[in-house]
Amino acid sequence: LPIYLMAFFYHGARSLVLGLCGALCCSVLSVLGALLLREKPVPDLTPIITGLIIPLLLPADIPYYVVISACAVAIFVVKLPFGGTGSNLFNPAAVGFASVAICWPELVFRYPATMQAIEIFGESTAKIAQSPAYSLSLGAVPDYGVLDILLGSAPGPMGATNILVVAAAGIFLIVKKAINWITPVSFIVPYAVLCLLFPRIGGSPFEALCYELFSGTVVFGAFFMLTEPVTSPKRDFGKILAGVSSALAVFLFRYFGGFEMGFASALIVMNVFSPIFD
Fold it and tell me: The whole model's pTM is what?
């Protein structure tokens, strides 16, 4: 919710409507899926969480049909065929995002500049800006400073740009024991080491490291997606193995992948190995 409030601050009410659209869509599709399977719908909040995460991975001016498509894939392809909540093999939000990224890359990786109100309905007329993650993929230094990325002033996914708020929310989840600290730490530390050893831009190594860590969905994914209880390992040592392996996978996808954001793709691959890590 704090992340959505920051998205509202930078992009206006459309970001809140996108979140509401995702939550309602996933909830309705879950009930519809249960009825199609001739099962009694069970009260469950996880579809709402999935529906809230998906828009945060997308631009604030993304068309609603893209969000609905991602939600449909998350529920009808990832969750229901494998038995519903608690039985899915892959992270629903990650697969939903990856599906629309493949189908509509020209929309998913086109980001509006911050501090401009976006029309709630209809085609957006917002000014488009180049994200720091895209600049890094070209081997260029981003046009925005590290402080801009930390405060959310740089363009990017509407829920992953304000790193300070995302990190604070993640730490809150750890303190409340909603997630285990081992998973994000075992991911962020080796990923930082890899970025430090193999920088994609020149200049200060520390600055290059900050750009790599804080651009795209790395921090958001570490706290809100990698820790998903169903698809992540259950044992502590398994969490460490998953974190380190995910760091390597994200590093490879971001450095050599077709899109500037490879976290979701890497997470889908790593979900396959969770039982092995355990």
Answer: 0.90
